Amino acid sequence: MEIKLDGRTAVITGGSKGLGLAMAIRFAASGADVAILARGREGLDAALPQITATAKGKVMAVACDVSKADDIKRAYEAVMAGLGRIDIVVNNAGQSRTGPFETVTDEVWQEDLDLKLFAAIRLTRLAWPQMRERKWGRVINVLNIGAKAPRANSAPTTISRAAGMALTKVLAGEGAPDNVLVNAMLVGVIVSDQIVRRHAARSGNITLEEQIAEAGRGVPMGRMGKAEEFANLACFLASDQGGYVTGTAINVDGGMSPVM
Ligand code: NDP
Q1: Is the CB–ligand 1 distance for residue 193 below 6 Å?
Q2: Per residue in 234-254, pLDDT tens?
């Protein structure tokens, strides 16, 4: 199936690396104008040529810390000035933060909720009215499989992710009459920049390939996922072909989640 996003404009948070970058490349190659948001200018500048290499439309990169309300507003205005509209919002920026419950301070809870939940609320709320008005919109919330099956010692991440799933369902109900479709994609373990960073921080002489293989052994399919595999599904959900799918939380995890 050839998936086309011609004439659409997408904003992808955390679009400079990992899954966000893979989605940006896929969306742009499928015809969408794409804006990527991330904090680091260096990462954004490195990502731009990778996206434009196969892009059919415009691509822009905006420095933004999505955990800050003012930054999101400024980034939204920059995207509107640069691309003129937003049809697709991908709330992807995030990082894992976990620990035993009694060690998680108020500050850590707040930071995690700001980065994962409030970022999605704030960016979606800004783009929502124009999507409803044009009777076409897509919101994709990138979460993790802990949202459905939270384990011990997985706070605050899984709590923020579960809230993201509830947000997805509420928005799906409100957007459906206006053809604004809202879905969540739940990540298991997928090779990304985050994995490379974790390897660099790890002591011992295990290679990156060995670490990836090791993580893959815990997955029923026997391997970690590829960012491109994740981007393929995101592209489908963002397209007209995904036009009757809303309010779902799809595991993209090689069978890893114990919950459907
Ligand atoms: P990466 O670390 O590879 O990339 C993260 C991206 O988000 C970067 O572009 C980073 O750029 C950006 N980012 C991080 N914090 C912020 C912030 N405060 N504001 C704006 N941008 C930010 O992550 P992945 O691609 O692996 O992960 C993508 C999403 O999937 C995340 O939400 C992650 O939690 C989730 N996930 C991934 C898993 C995996 O196996 N890969 C497992 C479970 C969940 P910069 O640092 O410059 O801001």
Answers
A1: yes
A2: 999 999 999 999 999 999 999
Domains and CATH numbers, the chain: 9-190+225-250 (3.40.50.720)
Q: H or E segment at 186?
A: strand 180-187
18 Cα: distance to centroid of ligand 1 (angstroms): 7
Give the mutation target among 90, 92, 112 for probing the ligand 1 site: most ligand atoms within 8 A of CB.
92
* Mean predicted confidence (pLDDT) in 108-137: 98
Ligand 1, atom nearest to 66 Cα: 19
Q: Residue 72 is encoded by which pair of tokens?
A: 């999101």
pLDDT (average), residues 19-29: 98
pLDDT at residue 203 greater than cutoff 80:
no
**Token pair 């008005």 is at which residue?**
133
**Coil, strand or helix at 156:** strand
